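Postdoc handover notes: sequence design on the structure in folder B. Input tokens:
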């Protein structure tokens, strides 16, 4: 785990949040659990704890993503020697839809370079933005 801290997610915007998730995972399974013992039952136990805490499917998937990345890290470095079990990802809702207000649109247009105004206008009017 200490080696992972300095390497995993380095330079990524998600680094701090991912390391917090990794810390939580370690607190659930214990820091001394050998990587080869981290099996499907262990994943089920972790998911059960996270869900019991009120986590929604998207949050569970973020933890599963952290588990997946950590297992790849460990496999590449020889800490895990057997194949990792497949993860059971949760079905996520599309998320909430929020429309930009006219005031937000005006502030956005003020801050953007003029060359972006047409494409931004089209994106707002058609819903093309993510």
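Designed sequence:
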């Amino acid at each position: 785990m200490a080696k992972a801290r300095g390497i995993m997610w380095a330079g990524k915007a998600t680094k701090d949040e991912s390391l917090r998730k990794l810390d939580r995972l370690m607190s659930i399974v214990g820091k001394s659990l050998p990587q080869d013992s981290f099996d499907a039952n262990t994943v089920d136990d972790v998911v059960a704890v996270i869900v019991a805490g009120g986590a929604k499917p998207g949050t569970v998937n973020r933890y599963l993503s952290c588990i997946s990345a950590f297992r790849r890290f460990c496999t590449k470095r020889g800490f895990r020697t057997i194949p990792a079990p497949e993860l059971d990802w949760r079905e996520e809702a599309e998320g909430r839809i929020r429309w930009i207000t006219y005031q937000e649109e005006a502030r956005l247009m003020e801050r953007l370079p003029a060359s972006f105004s047409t494409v931004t206008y089209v994106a707002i009017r058609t819903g093309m933005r993510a």
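Context for whoever picks this up: The two ends are 35 Å apart (CA to CA). Don't rerun without checking with the PI first.
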